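Continuing the batch. This is chain 6 of the set; chains 1 through 5 are on the previous pages. Same settings as before, nothing changed between runs. Recording input and output for traceability.
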Amino acid sequence: MEIEISNPKKVIQFAVIFSNLKHILSEITFYFTEDGLYFQGMDSSHISLVELNLSHEWFDKYEIDKPQTFGISVSCLDTIISCLDKDFRINMKHTEEDHLNITLTDDKIIKRYQMLLIDIDSDILNIPTVEYSADITMNSSVYKDYINELAMFGEELYVDCDEENVKLYSRGDYGKSEIIIKEEYLEEYAIEEDVKISQHYNIKIVKCFTNFTKLNKMVKFHLLTDNPMKIIYELSEENPEDNSLKFYLAPKVED
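Output for chain 6:
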């Protein structure tokens, strides 16, 4: 097995994913198939799920003679990827059973690493297809700023949606912070007629998700009452459904 990422934008995307993923997951299982790379993982609190899809076309080189499954330490992979220099490409090759060979290079400088593989007892969860009531697209950097502001006031993010606007707010010992976004100031907004959605989430976990804003200028949200919020960063303009990082966050339940 050998894969390579040489496109500068995609090298940055790959690095951003793993530099921030370590704050959510400690270990993951890579699934390499003829179609591409896939992984999913649940955080330690079991209220959020992360899912990555990268089609084989997304890579600059993708050679798989048979399906491969690898357990890896996220922090270990991030440590290696953090050694990237400008204009470097990432090459991964597997020839031995217990480690993955990773090379970072621009041809002038070659950095080689062996990352030990680990055994992880995990199953792929079946994520059901859901028809959401509200679909939102907004600038990811702006959204990150909003969440950082709201996180100063409370530990929960409240999200209210109706046909006129989206309201985000939090409250705590310092009082209440509220941000109302009119429909015309969102990049895209669609909600079912006469539907109102009101749910709240752990804002610390949402804040972790905003650290991935460099993946795309836009971030997409999908909401349905009593269902997890789905957050998507698309990783390519072509076939975005096959090249994306997704998060699913369960709403908190009132006592």
